[in-house]
Amino acid sequence: MADVAAQRFNQAKQPFATFDESKRRIAATSRFMPGGVSSNFRLGMAPHPLVFERAEGPCLHDVDGNRLIDYYLGMGPMILGHNPRAIRDAVVEQLDKGFLYGGQSPLEAEAAELFCALVPCAEKMRFCGSGSEAVQAALRLARAATGRKVVVKFEGHYHGWFDSVLVSTAATPENAGDPKHPNRNPGSTGQDETAWGNVEVLGWNDLAAVEKRLAAGDVAAVIMEPAMCNAGAIFPAPGYLEGVRAACTRAGTVLVFDEVITGFRVAPGGAQQVFGVTPDLATFAKAVANGFPVAAVAGRADLMDLFVSGGAVHGGTYNSQPVSMAATLVTLRTLADGKVMRAIEPHGRRLMDGISAALKKAGVQAAVTGFPQIFHVAFGLTAPAKDYRDLMRMDRARYVRFCAALLKRRVRALERGAWFLSATHDSLIIDETLAAVEDAAAEIGAES
User: What structural domains does the chain harbor?
Assistant: First the structure.
């Protein structure tokens, strides 16, 4: 206990971190890359995007010499922590054998077999390059199987940045419309309206709305995050997933779970294992390969076989690239028995409780909800959100200031509210984090 107290004291006494070199480099790179980044989701960071030199375990090391406790975890993938030796060794071994074959590798076959053994819905699967691509593959299969065009999605659920699904992911009170009949809001300028013309939007956790819409018999697919983890950590209401599953079966509609965040993070079989509801198809990415660009679509064999016998096209030069497959196989083997998720759980719960307590002490109203492996902090809410309409009441600006206050204290938390944990976030790291949280909460609390 004395060592922990000393660590907390030393952490609190450090001067605030500065990020001048990152700022300089981002400005310089902006001459060649818009915003100095290769993804819009890396903009809007407080105080600005950062540049990193290396990463190890639960920490990042930036070009200003700061060691930052990391809860971005690459925006979700790094469930085993940064740069784990077993993955590094497997990747180096494969590098000696080749980078890209334009064909299959034994690693791909082993990884696919293990994947299907772990995921409840996965009678068959295919690898992809990104979660956005996997979603497109799933929706193509659903339309090919049913001969229908309409896809139902839900407010606040994110399924990738492509024109066909980037709809109503970040609605505002001004443009959301009637909760029972939400407006369809494109997520970007420049989107082709014809690409999402057959996408309809409902409010999540409203089973009656889904049953009513599916009764017409013209919906190809219902796609959802089985637990809403992108905009905020919201669990399905009791009986909701089961009810949607039954409604899809009655209507001949393909049920698709987007498990890009929850897959291989909350359980070896994802949220479908946790909640005991099996979709027809599911998409995966992020934690499946611990930082390598690997995604997957999986599901019923009769649907997946449409890629071979039904004229549904699925391609990708880098799908199942052997180096990435080496990382995938090690990751899946490590996660297969569930011990990693169970080991994260007490640390995640302690962190959730500690954040709640620190914010309450500072007089900051917030709801901390979700899984221990991926949870969400929503400033301004007095109770856990039930759907995206509840999340629209969050005080996002104040939460971003909280993240900036944490970053000064060398803790990096994602500005949208999500906190990802890895197997390397141990008790001492949680101690250090909570010391920073207490100070940052007091700073934010002093605003009011």
Answer: 2-78+339-445 (3.90.1150.10), 85-335 (3.40.640.10)
Model pLDDT for residues 119-177, shown as the tens digit of each residue: 999 999 999 999 999 999 999 999 999 999 999 999 999 999 999 999 999 888 889 89
Residue 52 backbone class (left: φ over 0; alpha: ψ -120 to 50; beta: rest): beta
Q: How many Cα atoms within 13 Å fall on the side-chain side of residue 341?
A: 21
Q: Which of 62, 64, 70, 258 is catalytic?
A: 258
Q: How far is CA 190 from the centre of its chain?
A: 25
Q: Among the options 62, 72, 124, 158, which is catalytic? A: 158
Asked about 258 being catalytic, the answer comes back as yes
Active-site residue, 158 included: yes
SS3 content of the chain, % helix, strand, coil (to 5): 40, 15, 40
Please provide residue 418's backbone torsions phi and psi, each rounded to the nearest 5 degrees: -80, 140
Q: What is the pTM of this model?
A: 0.95
* Residue 169, CA distances (Å) to 19, 161, 178 in order: 31, 10, 16
Q: Cα–Cα distance between 28 and 23 in angstroms, integer?
A: 9
